[in-house]
Amino acid sequence: MKRHIYLKMKTVEEARQLFRSRFDPDTFLPPEEILTSAALGRVTAVPVFARLSSPHYHSAAMDGYAVAAEVTFGASQDRPKLLELGRQAFPVNTGNPLPSGTNAVIMVENVHPRDEATIQIEAGAYPWQHVRKVGEDLVAHEMVLPEKTEVTPYALAALLAAGVTRLLVRRRPRVVIIPTGDELISVAEIEAGEVPPGRVIEFNSLMLAALTEQLGALPEVRPIVPDRRQEIRAALAEAVQQGDMVIINAGSSAGTEDYTAQVIAELGEVLVHGVTMMPGKPTILGVVQGKPVMGNPGYPVSAALSFDQFAAPLLSDILGRHLPPRPTVAAQPAQKIPSKAGLEEFIRVTLGKVGERIMATPLPRGAGTITSLVRADGLIRIPAASEGVEAEKSVLTELLLSPELLEQTLVVIGSHDNTLDVLATLLRRHHPDLRLSSAHVGSTGGLLALQNHRAHLGGCHLFDPETGSYNVPYIKRLLPELPLKLINLVHRAQGLMVLPDNPKRIQGFQDLIRPGVQFSNRQRGSGTRILLDYQLAQLGIKPQAIQGYQQEEYTHMAVAVNVLSGAADAGLGIMAAARALGLKFIPVVTERYDLVVPETTFADGRFQKLWAIICSEEFKTTVAAMGGYDTRDTGAVMYEQ
Amino acid sequence: MKRHIYLKMKTVEEARQLFRSRFDPDTFLPPEEILTSAALGRVTAVPVFARLSSPHYHSAAMDGYAVAAEVTFGASQDRPKLLELGRQAFPVNTGNPLPSGTNAVIMVENVHPRDEATIQIEAGAYPWQHVRKVGEDLVAHEMVLPEKTEVTPYALAALLAAGVTRLLVRRRPRVVIIPTGDELISVAEIEAGEVPPGRVIEFNSLMLAALTEQLGALPEVRPIVPDRRQEIRAALAEAVQQGDMVIINAGSSAGTEDYTAQVIAELGEVLVHGVTMMPGKPTILGVVQGKPVMGNPGYPVSAALSFDQFAAPLLSDILGRHLPPRPTVAAQPAQKIPSKAGLEEFIRVTLGKVGERIMATPLPRGAGTITSLVRADGLIRIPAASEGVEAEKSVLTELLLSPELLEQTLVVIGSHDNTLDVLATLLRRHHPDLRLSSAHVGSTGGLLALQNHRAHLGGCHLFDPETGSYNVPYIKRLLPELPLKLINLVHRAQGLMVLPDNPKRIQGFQDLIRPGVQFSNRQRGSGTRILLDYQLAQLGIKPQAIQGYQQEEYTHMAVAVNVLSGAADAGLGIMAAARALGLKFIPVVTERYDLVVPETTFADGRFQKLWAIICSEEFKTTVAAMGGYDTRDTGAVMYEQ
């Protein structure tokens, strides 16, 4: 089934060096001359020298009278001097040229007009007082900007002050991006309608175009090319004619329909096929007609990271920008991060400062989870030789946000609920300087994080069947020593998910034992399963009587999909999962979702702002409008120890 | 002469609060709906929710075969299992939907084809192995982005993955910028020609437009309006109709032709006239028809700083961007910075890390020196109540560059010479990660900086008349204990500057005593004056015999201007000053310009790279081509101790 094999895999560093060594970025494109007034953000191709001095004449720096300083010497309050207007003193406004023979300006405030023709002064002026001398700011022929310098608003002003109205800048490379794949459907096509099963929205090319644009280069996205060798080849041949660099996305792997490496080899040379990085392993780097060509993997995170590692540095060099290394911090993973030896792994993490430590919580690692890049505050690179990072071991983390923001972040770890997003949104609305960062590791994971002081807050909905109560028994067991408050966020409905028209007329748990009703269950130990078993026991329903009780799924969504696809008639889950797939939701029980707030957090002004929002009508109204929630206890302290 | 007085001056903070309190940035402009594909850099107006789940079907995460996991249980190398294609196993490529009834994918590498219809496996698959489940990345109706969030390339991808093809973003405010002033000449007008004396290139409006654009707002620059009240009033009235904010530049002071405050008061309300800041004191903040109007001072640094303090925060709020405070460092001024009490002063400084200290060297403080903003690495704000900052006292400094760059900066302090710019340029060309920052405080200032370990290098051309030699006597006196090397940068010509056609036929010092020849002299103590006096003594010329010997100027350029304007027939100076004003330059003597390199610097790898450039043919050739320089000793060690 394999059509060809990877070249010997390269490390990220080897691959980057090999790719860059084939191009001289300083001569890759000829510079272009543009108007200075349109040069904001462009990069100088050569040093730029002043054409004029600034000022180009001695000019008044204040409103007042220009005089020859020598004439004023000796004036004092006791012995004022009179100056004749038009001969010894000349009215000037700021910026006016000094009349010939004058070399100082007396401020208007310090002058007493005597009559139409005479002024009186009570202090002498020193030579060049309140005068901007020729070349004070810029001297003609002096360098205004060195080469490879970005034209900032201030630089633009300085260039114009120096009479430089046109300048040579680095040309912006045109990057042609070719999406390939039979399964793809363009954004334009889905504009209104649905996406058919088996088809995937083509968004990688637009993401790569945006990354290209952000660097200052000129992206050009081509129409989707189907997985046919001849068509990909033709598209590449055309693209190298028109662009300065080509990115083919994807077909870079070794599957039956992965032609990218083949066509690059046919038209030019493949330098790298396979990099010891994850995500991003099937990256291809090549040259066709002297132009860089990149085969980007198809998963969005892979495509983004291989762009980041290989395309961005080369494009930056061509643009004359020095891409400084990202700032780093020493962060401690909130949990162990295992990693496959042999591949350098790029772990996306959220970051927050808890006490004196910067805690890193890994985001989902799949190459398909683009949200992991959206939510990432940092990147931990685990070397190929390593098998992972232990929890709480300090590890170098590349920052993707400004370091100042880490101080302004409240970290909540635990079970996820959509109302946390509402909370984050309202916090942002009312306190734009604060940030709520949430990591989703389940309720127990949240309590363990608090145990180890890895989070400011825990999000928790743990039902205890023995006492029939929420959260407190678990806190007493796991956090017996920690002074804390338990503050309710919401009560959340769990319910039965069924098809929209509810063909089996299911109304509650008792309907699950009816013949012909197929159930889809959650795995043992999950909150939803504990709740189900408790409710069944309360109702005296025997689990064995329920068809499908033994078949376990690990997420709300998997259960919902089973219902939607007809594999099951009902499943227990939260309203959000039902809504996501357009299922009917029949609430059967509510569970309590609380925030666990250690006293140290409670005393923190940042938390007080958050609490004020939780208690606000705005929060309660917004949450109530989502459906599936009850806010009767929202903001209330349910327990403290 | 004053037409009106300032309102009671406000502090920066008071003025900003007063201005912002008049507008609700969240409702100032209605949001607009745009295509997600065009949303890069825009800011969400409301939270954005997923329209579709991603993936929206269970899909293969690997190339291989889709199977029902249960069927594969028990397979091992010893007891392989056979699966029938099309019934028990289905070939899939990454991204394909799982056929009905399957819940796992076996990678193609782990499958042994037996015949056309059968494959063999040697290990079991676990449920959902190599499968991307529905909603794994995004669940429909879940929040993708909160409000007030910038659309990054990754966010753009996530939105499209979630089927969000249009979204509501904050509208970009239109900012109308009106340049005013009789003395102004537009950039278009000077394109080719010269700038007449008394006229000034109007570049502030383009700088303000660039600053506006950088924030994400839409600038619109109007033609220059002359200093006439009715015309300014008409321009403002029109601008508030068409824009969301108006900036009038300038006429904000209290001079005879400063009408800005008047016309704002006539058409609306003046909130602030006069802020206790320097530069930027004559700032006006007002409201006309519910729209913010700003009167910016005319000096470029004032205009930039008042934009930075008042326009930028308001525009950022309207754009929904939280402008985080600039990062700060504790820096130590390399020299005392006196400041006027009563005004908060914004000192532009260059920064560099010398040893463990970050040294701040003040740049020229005039509000007209736009280059001080171009060159600034940081901003020291001296409170109104303070009379300045002592040298080497730690002071909070707002960073204008990335903190990492401070580690990569070589700091040279001393006398300026244009060849230092060449050096900085070549360093940038060959080592884009390194930076040479130079501060110009004169040769002696440079030696004192080294004495106090405030710089890596000193730039020095001190002639000692007693020994007739350069630099070494001064080093022995000022730095007797410091192990160092003296490395020559260049020999520099000083010469007589005369009009281009040299009407008085001046060839050398002896011509200065001819009757009818007027000389322009430099001040006592300056290097040029020491050189002149030494040369005159050598030649046996009596200073008193030279007309104009007593009239002193403080800069090369002031002397050159005297020659150009006819006030003098000749002056002694460097070739760059003569070239700047198109004067003829008659070399009469060379002086030695050396770098003073302490051993600690010499041992530093960064200096070694700089030295390699100084010694390179490229540097010597470039310097020689400038004229007025001799590179015979360039790079050579002239002395060490």
What does this 3D model show about the protein?
The structure is a homodimer of 641-residue chains. Chain A is an alpha/beta fold and 641 residues long. Chain A has five domains: 12-25 and 173-318, MoaB/Mog-like domain (Molybdenum Cofactor Biosythetic Enzyme, Chain A, 3-Layer(aba) Sandwich), CATH 3.40.980; 32-54 and 137-169, Alpha-Beta Complex (Molybdopterin biosynthesis moea protein, domain 2); 59-132, Molybdopterin biosynthesis moea protein, domain 3 (Molybdopterin biosynthesis moeA protein, domain 3, Beta Complex); 325-403, MoeA, C-terminal, domain IV (Beta-clip, Beta Barrel); 408-641, D-Maltodextrin-Binding Protein, domain 2 (3-Layer(aba) Sandwich), CATH 3.40.190. Helix content of chain A is 27%, strand content 28%. Chain A is built from 19 helices and 40 strands. In chain A, the strands form eleven sheets. In chain A, strands 29, 30, 31, 34, 35, 36, 37, 38, 39 and 40 form a ten-stranded mixed beta sheet that branches. In chain A, strands 16-13-17-21-20-18 form a six-stranded mixed beta sheet, sandwiched between helices. In chain A, strands 22-25-24-26-28 form a five-stranded mixed barrel. In chain A, α1 (12-20) runs parallel beside α8, α5 (204-215) packs parallel to α8 and α6 (229-242) crosses α7. The longest helix of chain A is centred in the middle third of the chain and has 19 residues, at 300-318. The radius of gyration of chain A is 34 Å and the shape is globular. The two termini of chain A are 63 Å apart. The interface between A and B is large, with 120 and 120 residues.
